[in-house]
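Notebook entry, structure prediction.
Reason for the run: the old model in the group folder had no record of what sequence produced it. Starting over properly, with the input documented here first.
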Amino acid sequence: MRAEFFIKSFCRIENGQVMFNGNTIFTTESEIFSNFSKETYRHFEISYPKFFKMDNLSKLAFLAAEIILKNENLDADKNNIALVFSNRASSLDTDRKHQKSIENSGSIFPSPAVFVYTLPNICLGEISIRHRLYSENSFFIFEKFNAEHLQLYAHNLLRTKKAEKVLCGWVEFDGDDYKAFLYLVEKNAEIPHTVQKIESLYYNE
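New structure, fully documented this time:
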């Protein structure tokens, strides 16, 4: 039986590499994410000054989404793309920075610029603003990558016509470790949106 929905494109970012649809399109020797993110931003000639004010989780999600969505020729009035992201650490990396700033300043709210990113779903807002997306968006926390949940949730959004496409995936940033795996689901493409295929792409098998 023919699949109902398909993966149109996918992006992986980890270990200083950016991959799109299985091909490495950018790599750097920078081991520090802040340097890697700046190099990636400049390499793809992105113009969005607010990027440099984002926390690391948002930068990671933003870059992966940018790689995928720049190929969609988005219409400012018709961007019916939902966002369904997940990770394990939530916004822990930023939470640590916020706690440290409290300890250093002695104030409950020492840095609004840090505090605003102490929720993982803020990265969804950054992407939505950038690409003018007004569809549903959700961020889930799991102990490990949960392909079945992403598949079921995306299919429900598409079947109920709450979105025409869904950008799904995993965006994890914790200390020195980072990994983004995002993919775009729609009705007409080539890669079946099955749990097995999602896991195969995520684990780069």
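Summary: Strands lie at 6-14, 17-20, 23-27, 81-87, 137-141, 165-174, 177-186, 191-192.
The old model has been moved to the deprecated folder.
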